[in-house]
Design brief:
heterodimer, A: about 250 residues, Ferritin, 10 helices, B: about 90 residues, alpha+beta
Chain lengths: ~250, ~90
């Protein structure tokens, strides 16, 4: 049970940490100052959430690893994030579609975790859910604007959606860890979130005049179990550089 | 259509009971995005409980050249200032 709980918390923390790192890559390069700051704000929210999840994971593990050791001292195969969050930023369309598909899932997960049998998990979810509600409001709004925008923006959004769709299946694919957590009332069944997610994503895409890919399309998986894409090593190399070069260095 | 987004003036109410105060401006294609952008640009440090945005083009302004006729006549009318009343300590934000 403790091992499963540790894994479960790493998944939550790593999703937030890795997506935060990706969004930070946009700093100073956003298409407008306002967008630049909005992405940086989202990245900071996610980094704050990652700290809370990883600190709790370290406590549960009981091996003396704190948030920093977990963030900067693990190699790619020890990360438990979904593959979608490590996807490269691509164009702004790719970044926004990734964000939207993730936000629609993330806010549902956190909403369910507010009722977790574990009070520490519920408390973090309560705080994070407010931030993610805004992330979703913003990313959904932009998906509609750019999907139903110019011919060029619509083409890019559709291409991003078709490319990223195969990384959404993993969100709802339960494994042994999820089943143990569900049995202990720590989280809701991950599969149960799928129908609502599909309905809401479908509604947003319809409003954006984008074609929704088939829900039963072939899906990638493996991130939750530590099997990552070729991009993960590069992302970690940049994120972890300082702690790798100067271990234990403090701010 | 111009490629530049129009400019919006941003007003933030910092707490209930106080008026909205001008804090700056930003670019956005419409009011909804202007409010989202204002939230991201101007309320990062817990500044606000409410946001107004107004298109900068819709703000009517007095001309700096009219400063004399507009404001000088009031300078010599000290009796318009309510400074002759003692103010109770308990009255805030007046």
């Amino acid at each position: 049970m403790l091992d499963d709980q540790f894994e479960f918390l790493l998944r939550l923390g790593d999703n937030a940490l890795v997506l935060s790192q990706r969004l930070c890559e946009w700093v100073g390069k956003g298409p407008a100052l306002e967008e630049d700051m909005a992405l940086a704000n989202t990245a900071l929210d996610l980094l704050g959430q990652a700290r809370l999840w990883l600190t709790l994971a370290g406590e549960v593990e009981g091996a003396g690893r704190g948030e920093d050791r977990l963030a900067h001292g693990r190699d790619a195969h020890e990360f438990r994030n979904l593959l979608i969050v490590e996807r490269p930023n691509g164009s702004y369309a790719d970044t926004l579609v990734r964000q939207y598909l993730f936000d629609e899932w993330h806010h549902r997960v956190l909403d369910a975790l507010k009722r977790s049998s574990d009070g520490r998990v519920a408390a973090i979810a309560e705080k994070a859910a407010k931030e993610v509600a805004y992330h979703l409001r913003r990313s959904a709004d932009l998906v509609v604007r750019l999907g139903d925008g110019s011919a060029e923006s619509a083409r890019r959004m559709q291409a991003a959606l078709d490319e990223l769709w195969m990384y959404t299946g993993e969100m709802f694919a339960a494994d042994g860890v999820d089943e143990v957590m569900e049995a202990h009332g720590v989280c809701a069944s991950v599969a149960s979130l799928r129908e609502e997610w599909l309905a809401d994503v479908g509604a947003t895409l319809a409003e954006a005049r984008l074609a929704m890919p088939a829900p039963d399309a072939w899906m990638q998986k493996g991130g939750k179990q530590g099997r990552h894409t070729e991009h993960m090593g590069y992302l970690l190399a940049e994120m972890q550089f300082l702690q790798r070069a100067y271990p234990g260095q403090q701010w | 259509m111009s490629k530049e987004w129009p400019l919006w003036e941003v007003f933030i109410r910092s707490q209930h009971g106080l008026a909205h105060k001008h804090v700056g401006s930003l670019h956005a294609p419409d009011a909804e995005m202007a409010i989202n952008n204002a939230r991201d640009v101007y309320t990062r440090r817990n500044e606000g409980v409410g946001i107004w945005v107004v298109r900068a083009a819709d703000v009517a302004s007095s001309s700096p050249g009219d400063k004399g006729p507009l404001f000088e006549p009031s300078q010599s009318k000290v009796y318009r200032h309510p400074t002759f009343f003692p103010m109770p300590e308990e009255v805030k934000n007046l």
